[in-house]
Amino acid sequence: MKLFFYVGDIISVLTSEPIDIFLDYKAPLEGCATGAYVEIPLGKRKVFGVVWGSGSNKFETHKVRSVIRVLEAPPMTIEMKVFLEKLSSYTLAPLSSVLRLATRAPGLGTPEAMKLSYSLSAADIPKLTPARTKVLGFMRNNPGTEFTLSNLVKNCGVSISVIRGLVSIGAVLEIRKAKDVKFPLLNTNTPRQPLTPDQEAAVKKLDFVGDYSAILLKGVTGSGKTEVYLEAISKCISDGQQALVLLPEIGLTSEFLIRVEKRFGVRPAEWHSGISAAERRRVWKMVGLSGVQLVVGARSALFLPFQNLGLIVVDEEHDPSYKQDDGVLYNARDMAVLRGTLCSAKVILASATPSLESWANEKHGKYLGIELKSRYGGAQLPVITSIDMRLEKLARGEWISPSLVLRIQDKINKREQSLLFLNRRGYAPVTLCRSCGMQVNCNQCDSSMVEHKVLNRLMCHQCGNTKFKPKACPSCSSENSLSAVGPGVERLGEEVNRLFPDARVAVLSSDLFPSATDLKVQINQIADGKVDIIIGTQLVAKGHNFPLLTLVGVVDIDIGLQGADLRASERTFQLIQQVSGRAGRADKSGEAFIQTFQPDHHVIKSILNSDPEAFWESEALDRERFKVPPYGRMAGIILSGKNISDVQFIGRYLAKNSNDLREGGIKLYGPAPAPIARIKGQYRERMLVVASKKAPLQVKLIKWISQINSRRGVRIKIDIDPYNFY
After folding, report:
1. Which of 98, 189, 299, 540 stands the most exposed, by the fewest C-beta atoms within 10 Å?
2. Which of the following CATH numbers is that of domain 633-720: 1.10.443.10, 3.40.50.720, 3.40.50.2000, 3.30.70.600?
3. Which 3 state secondary structure label does DSSP give 115?
């Protein structure tokens, strides 16, 4: 591969524009390296791209346009290029779309952003206006301070023009500093938290692991997995390498950042949708310039331009939010392992309830297994008990059993906290007319509108469409006949307030907090003991440590066990184990109660027996019997379009012409209407491909889909390793 091109050389450039082809250009006067970020002409526009290699030389040289300029950024590494190519090949996503994931930093082509500040000059300026005198007086009262423009305007009560006037006459100095500056160095010599024998043994194992290794770090909830991988981060940074920690939820970021700052003296870089555009640009640039040692972020942080990546940590590696469900459909956990392989970095997959895929990889020797078997500080795991709802007497509109009510009251009397878990947002999942039976559905989707009483709206959780709850039934016009059916966390909050009128109650759900900062305030109040009863969705199931929480009540576990989802049992087991593990993490013992109408269900029994290995063994046998992941491969084919007849036609055509696809251990199921047959006005049908581990799945799928000449406005989406089947 040619590494540098001189003026006039024909180069191949890949852009993130939706054209998915390499474009030929001439190298600029100063030349350019393979991997350089460049600005190029495309039609009448100017766009950005990456130099991928030598051009095709299909065109006469004088007809090839030149690169406009090379951007001031380190070239994309060969490792990163190969990573993007392999991800594209595996997911069957266009390489241009994959490149877009790696260039999500605003303003990369603009001049370096500058930060302005103002300080007092030594000049003595006579005859100043009262406003200017006021500004200088304020600055003299704060000697040696650099002020922002907004700070001076606010404190002095003057306009911006007054400040600029002082600058123009030399009374005030305007200081320009680059915004894109390096992040402070982490101090790896700060005193660490004392480690348990389990943790010490885990740290030593990690020390002896070679360059690339995938490590499954298992441990019961509260066992101190985080402290173990913080030690691995410390060693990585001490060795002069960069480290990346992926977290599944933005809500977990603030607590983790505080913990990192306490351990290393400074905050690491953040990368998620909650940071500003300017900060995103700074992080992207500093990662490429090795100006940051540690990044903590969401799944998209995996595409940052690391130059010397030595460690990737995927915390809560089992979490389904690591699977990207729109655009490029990838699983960040699996792609983290791929990137670690390519750059010889260690990859730590940490979880109290690992995914079956990671569990199987450890069993088969692909991953190194490290396990923490006891809780930190001698804390005990909670005792888990089921409450048979068939034996409980509840009035209409009640969901908390009398048995659970008594136990919550006991905790209140002891000044301890209780958590009620219900994985359902809003007030009620269904709004139904008692007169005609009509259900209020979304106009754009085949799904019910969820009532959100706090927002005073009905909301579709598929497309986000909202509307006010009508006073009369849209179908039969009956007044006051619309009734909320089923509980959400808001409705559960009403019941708790009625049962425990003197208790301090907090409802935690992603739609109730406008920002991560607001959520952090509420979580801190809970940790400080200012709340008696917490009601929450899966937002509370992981990452939080509430010292006074000693009881967890799971209100409706049965909903997670319904349907034909391949991973329904696995997800329910993981979720209940995680949320139960919130109890008893300090010096007081904890207990968890599971309300269920199916106490004999094998998932419930596995949870009650506190034997996760038995559950994984049983689940693995079922999956292996049917040759599905992790013992086989799957691909979801989603057909969607505005015309249902066209969608059905394409589905039937593909099924009819699938003989070549079905060869070599590949089976095709469908087409059939998707469980949610219409989303955002698009009609949907699904097909499912199941293949053996050795089958050339991607090659077969490309050949099969490419036989369609005209798609009639039907979009075909291929989801390799699907997680959702709706």
Report:
1. 189
2. 3.30.70.600
3. strand
d(CA 415, CA 432): 40
Whole-number percent of the chain with pLDDT over 70: 98
Do residues 703 and 660 lie in contact, with contact meaning Cβ atoms separated by under 8 Å?
A: yes
Degrees (nearest 5) of the Cα angle 131, 134, 137? 155
Mean pLDDT of 341-365: 95
In this structure, whether the domain defined by 114-178 belongs to CATH 1.10.10 is answered with yes
Residue 462 CB contacts under 8 Å (≥ 6 apart), including other chains: 442, 445, 447, 676, 679, 680
The pLDDT tens digits for 506-539 are 998 888 877 777 778 888 898 899 999 999 988 8
4-102 CATH choice from 3.20.20.150, 3.65.10.10, 3.40.1440.60, 3.40.50.20: 3.40.1440.60
For the domain bounded by 379-424+487-620, which CATH number is listed?
Answer: 3.40.50.300
pLDDT at site 543: 67
Q: Which residue pairs from 21-25 have beta carbons closer than 8 angstroms and sit at least 24 positions apart in sequence?
A: 22/52, 22/56, 23/49, 24/55, 24/56, 24/57, 24/58, 24/59, 24/64, 25/55, 25/64, 25/65, 25/66, 25/67
Dihedral pair phi/psi, residue 132, rounded to 5°: -70, -40
Which among 332, 63, 368, 321 is positioned nearest to 207, based on CA atoms? 368
CB atoms within 10 A of CB 216: 23
**d(C-alpha 272, C-alpha 109), whole Å:** 21
pLDDT at 519: 79
Query: φ and ψ at 652, to 5 degrees?
Result: -65, -40
More confident residue, 118 or 115: 118
Contact indicator for 579, 540 with CB cutoff of 8 Å: yes
Strands 505-508, 533-536: parallel, antiparallel or unpaired by DSSP? parallel
Instruction: Tell which residue, 92, 178, 167, 106, has the closest CA to residue 136.
Output: 167
Q: Do residues 425 and 408 touch, judged by C-beta distance below 8 A?
A: no
H or E element that contains 389: none
Q: Which of 382-386, 409-413, 454-458 comes out lowest in average pLDDT?
A: 454-458
For residue 355, what are its two tokens? 């995914």
- CATH architecture, domain defined by 197-376: 3-Layer(aba) Sandwich (3.40)
* pLDDT 10s digits, 252-291: 777 889 899 999 999 999 999 888 888 899 999 999 999 9
Q: pLDDT tens digits, residue range 416-434?
A: 999 999 989 999 999 999 9
* Closest of 720, 642, 719, 638 to residue 685, by C-alpha: 638
What gap in Å lies between CA 654 and CA 217, rounded to an integer?
A: 43
Domain-wise residue ranges, the chain: 4-102, 114-178, 197-376, 379-424+487-620, 633-720
pLDDT of residue 61: 84
pLDDT at 107 over 80: no
- Is 687 in contact with 647 (CB distance < 8 Å)? no
Asked whether this chain's domains 197-376 and 379-424+487-620 adopt the same fold, the reply is: yes
Mean pLDDT for all residues in the chain: 91
Cα 467 from Cα 452, distance rounded (Å) = 10
Q: Which of 579, 259, 231, 544 is nearest to 372 (CA)?
A: 231
302: its two tokens: 């995996």
Tens of pLDDT, residue by residue over 124-148, are 888 889 999 999 999 999 888 889 8
SS3 378: helix
Residue ranges of alpha helices (H) inside 69-192 are 78-91, 95-102, 130-140, 149-156, 160-168
**Phi, psi of 58, rounded to the nearest 5 degrees:** -80, -20
